[in-house]
Amino acid sequence: MIPSSSFPPVAEDNQAISPTPLDIVALLKDAHHPGAGAIVLFSGEVRDNNRGREVAYLEYESHGPLATKMMGDILREAKEKWKLHIALAQHRVGKVAIGESAVVVITASAHRSEAYAANRYIIDRIKHEAPIWKCEYYTDGTHEWGNNCNCQAVTGDAAKHIYGEPAQPH
Amino acid sequence: MIPSSSFPPVAEDNQAISPTPLDIVALLKDAHHPGAGAIVLFSGEVRDNNRGREVAYLEYESHGPLATKMMGDILREAKEKWKLHIALAQHRVGKVAIGESAVVVITASAHRSEAYAANRYIIDRIKHEAPIWKCEYYTDGTHEWGNNCNCQAVTGDAAKHIYGEPAQPH
Amino acid sequence: MKIHVYAALKEYFTPEFELAEPIRNTDELKICLLAINATAGDILKTCRFAVEDGFIDNEFKLKEHDTVIIIPPSSGG
Amino acid sequence: MKIHVYAALKEYFTPEFELAEPIRNTDELKICLLAINATAGDILKTCRFAVEDGFIDNEFKLKEHDTVIIIPPSSGG
Fold it and tell me: How many CB atoms lie within 10 A of CB A125?
């Protein structure tokens, strides 16, 4: 395994990759800034179903040092781009139960447009680019790696991704 | 004052207009659903400055029954449009200190696009349409009502608003 | 007719007052309000009106015992 | 050369193993990997490669004592 010292630490003083439950409530509690009029928190949580199958739990695996480095780079870039007061992200690894948080992103900016846009940008890049993988364990006892990023089928390049657009109403 | 019984209660079992501090941490703690893969929380907090002036604190006033009714309508509409599992909003009234939350919106949906889009839709409509008003008290002892919705100058109709677009990077 | 005003409107009118004149619609109400404070013209143009269960426009027939809520623009931003 | 694989790739290869062959770039590495498991062709096409401090492409000159990380697509969704 590559020693984590090969990668510079993340900008924020948070643990990017966590083997223990994410304390999103504590993170929110601390995420305030006198210049920030808008705080946006995203929590990606484990659903009890996916593509028609009943999910028992998920298991996430990561390349810790590389994921930490990439998440730090993404946060630094977003902070600069949108002039954020706060930008942090944590991703859980290991077994994650239904309703638990697998990933959390918090952004804070003077006005709300920036906090929303940056938050979405950060989670989209983490989900598509960071070396973090999901294995779904189903209630029927089977499991499957995947539902992974499939952008390459469109872009023709494993390093080129297509990010989310705002959802239109149903 | 119009009795609150004139207006039907909000869909969600929360107090839409609160004279006491918003407990956004407790609201987030409760906002989970086994079918929701995405939770988005927005907190609008009081900044220490606005349009170049040092702000001491804000004071919000509302027409409680009408604001409660409108927030309930907005939440119900968003829940239906984006198939949300959770949609709630609370707005503080009275004196709100720097760094305190003046308004919170939480949305939860199967996938993240819907939770982000609905969250933004709800806060934009509350800010533009609900009868809730802000008075800024400055450190120099003066105060001013306003920084209010000015959409009418463009739309020519006090009931027609222009909502926010996603922010582009700086 | 009872009138309730909010926020910045309180710098032009007392928060709650009564009008004895017969007022049939919001246009007539605006004329009465301007007779009380002629400087309120600009802000009144930006306001909405409500009676009990919702917003009203000039088509709404006001009655003597209505309580009219005058609503300046929301906090916005 | 040491090879570390992750996630779905572990259904094709052991998580960590060594290759004794002289391998100069990622194209040659892919050929070696397919010699071990010919069914890995499709998934390998979607993978990225990394050495220590970042991702590499086929221009990167691999050395005998490098540890190569093979990275399938991220969790996405």
Answer: 21
Instruction: Please answer whether residues A106 and A145 qualify as being in contact, where contact means their C-beta atoms are separated by less than 8 angstroms.
Output: no
The pLDDT of residue A13 is above 80:
no
Distance CA A166, CA C66 (A): 44
Cα A104 to Cα A122: distance, rounded to the nearest angstrom:
10
Min Cα–Cα distance to chain B from C76, Å? 4
Distance CA D21, CA B131 (A): 74
Taking the CA atoms of D12, D14, D19 and D25 in sequence, report the sign of the dihedral they define. Answer: positive
Residue with tokens 């399938």: D72
Report which of D63, B119, C49, B28 is spatially closest to residue A29, judged by C-alpha positions: B28
CA–CA min distance C57, chain B (Å): 10
Supply the DSSP string of D21-77, one letter for each residue.
Answer: S---SHHHHHHHHHHH-GGGHHHHHT-EEEETTEEE-TTS---TT-EEEEE------
- How far does Cα D50 stand from its chain's mean position? 8
AA letter at A154:
V
Is the pLDDT assigned to residue B63 strictly greater than 80?
yes
Which chain D residues are Cβ-neighbours of A130 within 8 angstroms? 74
| Pairwise CA distance, residues B132 & B16, whole Å | 11
Chosen for mutation from B63, B136, B151, B160 (greatest number of chain C CBs closer than 10 Å) is B63
> Which residue matches tokens 């709404």?
C60
Q: Give the pLDDT confidence of A119-131 residue by residue, as tens digits.
A: 999 999 999 999 9
Residue from A132, A118, A113 nearest A64 by CA = A132
C-alpha closest to that of B13 among B66, B86, B115, B74: B86
Q: Could you tell me the pTM of the whole model?
A: 0.88
Residue A124 has φ and ψ, to the nearest 5°, of: -65, -45
Calpha distance C7→B134 (Å, rounded): 8
Across the A:B interface, residue pairs with CB atoms under 8 Å apart total 132
Burial B70-93 (b: 16+ CB within 10 A, else e): bbbbbbebbbebbebbbbbbbbbb
* Set of chain B residues whose Cβ sits within 8 Å of the Cβ of A40: 40-42, 119
The H-or-E segment that residue A54 falls in is: strand A53-62
Which residue(s) pair with B53 in the sheet?
B50
Query: Are the beta carbons of B42 and A38 separated by less than 8 Å?
Result: yes
pLDDT single digits (tens) B120-129: 999 999 999 9
